[in-house]
Amino acid sequence: MTTPDQFASVRYLVDDVQAAIDFYTTHLGFTLRSHPAPAFADVTRGPLRLLLSGPATSGARATPSDLGVGGNRIHLIVDDLDTETHRLSSAGLAFSSAVVSGPGGRQILLADPTGNLIELFEPAR
């Protein structure tokens, strides 16, 4: 088990590792941590370590092909959802949902180049 001061890691299977690196570092404030092979990289944002695994990695090969896509996504908190959606739209990115409001705040979904979901969430004030 990891200790609380270590990264929490999430693995995303991606079609193109370099495109994923570019997407996360350019648009969502991640920092490239390592890129030891063309088929793998990891990027970080705060305590989140996102493992970007291309088709040739062991992480991708271990996934059963009949495993359906769930509603899983990483959840990034933003201060101002309207500003973020405008910034990302201006950069040419398209959203996978409309803004949804609820008692806890507002959110919108964005997909990376492979289709993995990112939830941008603005907590209720």
TrEMBL record:
Pfam family, one: Glyoxalase
The name this protein goes by in its record: Glyoxalase/bleomycin resistance/dioxygenase family protein
InterPro entries, per database record: Anthracycline_SecMetBiosynth, Glyas_Bleomycin-R_OHBP_Dase, Glyas_Fos-R_dOase_dom, VOC_core
Keywords assigned: Dioxygenase, Oxidoreductase
KW Transcription (keyword) present: no
Entry GO MF terms: dioxygenase activity
SUPFAM superfamilies found in the cross-reference section: Glyoxalase/Bleomycin resistance protein/Dihydroxybiphenyl dioxygenase
VOC domain sequence ranges: 6-123
UniProt source species: Streptomyces cadmiisoli
